[in-house]
TrEMBL record:
It is a multi-pass membrane protein. Its main location: membrane. It is found in: Cell membrane. It holds the Pfam family MFS_1. This is Transporter, major facilitator family protein. Keywords: Membrane, Transmembrane, Transmembrane helix, Transport. Gene3D superfamilies: MFS general substrate transporter like domains (1.20.1250.20), Multidrug resistance protein D (1.20.1720.10). GO terms for cellular component: plasma membrane. The chain crosses the membrane at residues 26-45, 57-76, 82-102, 114-137, 143-161, 182-201, 207-226, 247-270, 276-299, 311-329, 335-352, 373-395, 415-442. The keyword Transport applies. One of its GO terms (molecular function) is transmembrane transporter activity. Residues 1-448 form the Major facilitator superfamily (MFS) profile domain.
Length: 450
């Protein structure tokens, strides 16, 4: 649910903007404020989970997420829904920061690949199923129900967790937090996203955006210096000394960035260019999660035998098929080609074992924070993918038009197709970079074993 809610709003933006009497770009804040809040809080809760207890924090987060979902559904204006989305994100960050750790605690190492693969299937399905599920809901109900649906499911999840999770010991004492490190980290994340989202509006060459880029870089350096001096740092930076872990995070970020191209661009193409209903759009987009839910556990099982890096490396080549289809597709093509492309994307997405790859390369002493860093990488990838997809789409449209455009070109719908091809060409490049990164990891592993 927490990953679905990062993407389900995309397909509802036009209806939300009309009902709340706000501009489309203001409605997009409902998407971005959720992702940014999660990124700000994830590492904090990853650290606190060591002291409060993972299960307890996960359960509290579930209840907060359900409450935030209820308030989102009841919202009737922009300030209320933004505040409710931040409450939702507070709960989501608690569950995201703890779920990997709970799984690695419960399952023996020999079963980590399968267990994390099953978990990965739900995380990835949530990330990519949002627009499809949202389209199906919007075909029969209003946008409020994309939030209301979380409430009964969340309550059931809470009681299942209460029944099945192992009883956690109560931690005595006040939690110790690296306050200077966290404040620097939070300022760094906020500065980075302000640079990205504001840059889309005023241009990335503007002096204000360049100043924010400089501030973000300065905060990164300051954070690294602070963490090296802390006895109990927010993030033990030694975890990044493992190339397999660091490159695993980067490659996962690239894959999630590409996934968000589908979440942002494909609903526009299907609804605005092909003039399909929200319900039909939702059905077509469901090709991704339907295939993903089968390929992820299979990929997890295979990763237990040949290694997560190797199966993920092969999966990246499968990603090339849908990206090429999306670069070439035109409105004259049969819808079957889109379904095939989306199904291939779901297959590759499920086979890409980012969770076992990341957790397998993190030493046992780093397992507690590694899950939070993996979730942070995922949400950073989605947030950057959101900004990249929209920026590249409208930049491509503007290049075709010969002047700056930031809306759908109703008078020239083929310009949108040109912009879509332009954006997906960049997504293809991201996959090629990920192939190179994992190729380096596999080569180093092979040289070590030989």
């Amino acid at each position: 649910m927490s990953t679905i809610d990062a993407s389900i709003v995309n397909i509802a933006v036009p209806k939300m903007s009309r009902d709340l009497h706000i501009l489309n770009n203001q409605a997009e804040w409902v998407v971005s404020v959720y992702l940014v809040t999660i990124c700000v809080l994830l590492i904090l809760f990853g650290r606190l989970s060591d002291q409060i207890g993972r299960v307890r924090l996960f359960q509290i987060g579930t209840l907060i997420f359900v409450t935030g979902s209820l308030f989102c559904g009841l919202s009737v204006n922009l300030p209320t829904i933004l505040a409710s989305r931040m409450l939702q994100a507070l709960g989501a960050s608690m569950t995201m920061a703890t779920n990997f750790g709970i799984i690695t605690d419960i399952f023996p190492p020999s079963r980590h690949g399968l267990a994390l693969g099953v978990n990965s299937s739900f995380v990835q399905v949530g990330n990519i199923a949002g627009p499809g599920i949202g389209g199906l809901i919007l075909s029969v109900l209003n946008w409020h129900y994309i939030f209301f649906i979380n409430v009964p499911i969340g309550i059931i999840a809470y009681f299942l967790g209460h029944h099945f999770f192992p009883r956690a010991k109560r931690h005595v004492g006040r939690p110790a937090i690296d306050v200077p490190g966290y404040l620097t980290y939070a300022a760094m994340i906020i500065s980075f996203f302000l640079m990205i989202f504001w840059g889309q509006v005023i241009g990335f060459g503007h002096w204000k955006i360049l100043c924010l880029a400089g501030l973000t870089l300065a905060l990164i350096i300051a954070f690294a210096l602070i963490e090296r001096r802390q006895s109990k740092p927010l993030i033990d930076l030694r975890i990044f000394h493992n190339l397999g872990f660091s490159f695993g995070i980067i490659s996962a970020m690239l894959v999630y960035m590409c996934g968000y191209f589908n979440n942002v661009i494909m609903p526009f193409y299907l609804q605005d260019r092909l003039q399909l209903s929200a319900g039909i759009t939702g059905l077509i987009l469901m090709a991704v999660p339907i295939v993903n839910v089968f390929s992820a556990p299979v990929g997890g099982t295979i990763s237990d035998h040949i290694g997560a890096e190797k199966i993920s490396f092969f999966a990246l080549f499968i990603f090339l098929v849908p990206e090429i289809i999306f670069i070439l597709v035109t409105p004259q093509w049969s819808l079957l080609w889109l379904v095939i492309g989306l199904a291939f994307f779901g297959c590759a997405n499920g086979a890409f074992q980012n969770n076992p790859m990341i957790m397998g390369n993190a030493g046992k002493e780093f397992h507690r924070i590694a899950g939070s860093i993996a979730a942070l990488g995922r949400n950073l990838g989605m947030s950057i993918g959101l900004a990249l997809a929209t920026t590249l789409l409208y930049h491509g449209i503007s290049l075709r038009a010969g002047y700056r455009m930031t809306t759908f070109p109703d008078a020239h719908p083929d310009w949108f197709v040109w912009g879509m091809h332009y954006a997906y060409a960049f997504a293809l490049g991201l996959i090629v970079v990920a192939i190179g990164i994992l190729g380096v990891v596999l080569r180093r592993k092979a040289s070590r074993t030989s």
